[in-house]
């Protein structure tokens, strides 16, 4: 056996000189590399979990929840009841017409403002619909309602004659008016979740956290100190997005700016807690990034940011209800587009506050000041 | 008075027993060295003594409760590479709870002591290996701890920087600090008052350099004979 041939590799060999042995050795090297990668993946349980979980989650989200098909739009009749109108609207399952009738236009507008219904059909004394009010703050629902109403008019053989359609809160159904309030939440998720997780894991990767552990810095101080910068950056981002949304795209803020910032603070605290929680599980920045994406994706697709939560099947809708963005996206639209106040949004506020407490407590529980 | 103590310390990681009933007691003002091969348990022992790892059984001092009296320069570079020397020192001074004026005075003295005054504006990540170790030592000494743990402080450092670093350690020793130093280099621990030989998590011998060397030409020879 020749060991350490000094001329080996010193000169570039011509391709024609590659012997079957050399080809076999190349194949062996390649096989070893592939085998080594599989061993590493198998032993890295976090990556393995992501490999298995990501396709399952994406299949569930895109297969069931992230759908452009809107069904069962909550609808009510106003002024007078009409069996013919009810039958026409309910024929294809696109509209879910509530029993009972709203007494007047004011009541119907209040029902839309508070999200109890998305469509209100004003029925005249002759039993024929005269006007339709549509909630424009949820773009997909509004566009579907408008389109389906037109289709139903053509099919209803007179039960649904031409009506004047009034779209509330987003009259021209502009997508920017719909997207900006939700986007505010998404941008804050990006900053608060990803940067916080990376910030803590970077300390661990560099070993600086070990040096901090020997100082009198408490666990709580370390957690708060690592999160405050990202909280401030996210709030600055909120100001920027709101200003650009208002100045450049004309997205209004009809409600209280202070309320919006208060809700954003609760939402950010919950998201920072999630970021810290990720940092207690991830060992490397790459793992932290993978886990952040894993948490971000459902927030983007299941929170009602794009696809209406009400149209998702019950099996996956519960996932939406454990995501902070589901509540914040709704609150942001309600405050910015509908001008709702704290009295109307107390239930979402309580849920956001509860989530903030739960995620921060879980992170604090797992965050350790020893290396064990 | 015993400043550094490990009393019957056992520490396991999964099925691996990293420390097996380790005993040592360093009196105030002494310089002790722990020597052993890679994986012998030196870093684990120092981390347990510093309270960074919980021991399974046994007792340690200073431990987590006594961290305020402790300076710990850990193996490798554990400071912020994107901060300057001065910013790192100011940060750790603040984290140790020093008043800004006291922190600045200590930093000034320690940077001069370590020969880093001229590099105060350099990014820590751009320092040489020896300078990084000195900066680590400076940051560990800011709160003037009476007890100092040094984990392989000269690994990967050039010979001249090693000598300079040892001058600093001996200076601290003479000034009254209690020091426990882990090293893989026998010529280094020979400078200590007492040496503890660690092998596979067990103390195999302990004594003064002269006692341990005995008739052997070097400490290393004595150690190799002992573990064989």
Distance between the termini of chain A: 48 Å
**What does the average pLDDT of chain B come to?**
91
Order of helices and strands of chain A: HHEHEHEEHEHHHHHHHH
Strand tally of chain B: 9
Report the major sheet of chain A.
5 strands, mixed
Using only CA atoms, what is the Rg of chain A?
A: 28 Å
Which spans of chain B have pLDDT < 50 for at least 5 consecutive residues?
A: none
Mean pLDDT of chain A: 83
Please work out how many helical segments of chain A DSSP would assign.
13
Instruction: Classify the secondary structure makeup of chain A into a structural class.
Output: alpha/beta
If classified by CATH, what would the architecture of chain B be? 3-Layer(aba) Sandwich
Please tell me how large the radius of gyration of chain B is: 17 Å
Question: Which term fits the overall shape of chain A?
Answer: globular
Quick structural overview:
The complex is a heterodimer of chains A (372) and B (228). With 372 residues, chain A is an alpha/beta fold.
What does this protein structure show overall?
The complex is a heterodimer of chains A (372) and B (228). With 372 residues, chain A is of the alpha/beta class. Chain A is 62% helix and 8% strand. Chain A has 2 domains: 73-168; 175-366, no CATH class. Chain A has a 5-stranded mixed sheet with strand order 2-1-3-4-5, with helices on both faces. In chain A, β3 and β4 (129-135) form a beta hairpin. In chain A, α6 (175-206) runs parallel beside α9 (257-281). Chain A starts with 19 loop residues before the first helix and ends in a 6-residue tail after the last helix. Chain B has a 6-stranded mixed sheet, sandwiched between helices. A 3-stranded antiparallel sheet of chain B has the order 2-1-4, with helices on one face. The longest helix of chain B is centred in the last third of the chain and has 16 residues, at 159-174. Chain B is globular, with a radius of gyration of 17 Å. Chain B starts with a strand and ends with a helix.
